[in-house]
Amino acid sequence: MRCVIARFPFDLTKSGVLESMKGIKPEPVLGESVTIGRRTYPVKQVGQVITRQDRRDFSAGEVVRAMTQLGFTCRGTSRDAGPARVLTPLQQASAMLGAPVAV
């Protein structure tokens, strides 16, 4: 499928994207993401790998649009969720042990 990312045309296929992302370790997802195989990647990381361009050269929306057209599952950011609560080290250890977290 031909798509335009950062004003450049690319001929992308689902198998080509799968092959490009093979062996790439996913970065932590902080915004929009795309699921490729069994892994979830940030869209900007996927865009950088498949286009070989700097992440500042394209928008997340361009990559999401292309990945959706190829049949990959894309997830957006949760805009209605508030800021994540930061736990103290003691609260984090308690949560990991399964104890209720004190507020």
Task: Kindly describe this structure.
The protein is α+β, with helices and mostly antiparallel strands. It has 4 helices and 5 strands. It has helices at residues 14-21, 43-51, 60-70, 89-97, and strands at residues 2-5, 8-11, 33-36, 39-42, 73-75. Strands 4-3-5 form a 3-stranded antiparallel sheet. Strands 1-2 form a two-stranded antiparallel ribbon.
Helix and strand string, N-terminal first? EEHEEHHEH
Catalogue the unreliable spans. none
List how many beta strands DSSP finds: 5
The proportion of strand residues reads: 15-25%
Helix content: 25-40%
Kindly, what is the distance between the CA atoms of the first and last residues, rounded to a whole number of angstroms? 51 Å
Mean pLDDT: 86
Question: Strands, helices and their partners?
Answer:
Elements: E1 2-5, E2 8-11, H1 14-21, E3 33-36, E4 39-42, H2 43-51, H3 60-70, E5 73-75, H4 89-97
Antiparallel strand pairs: 1-2, 3-4, 3-5
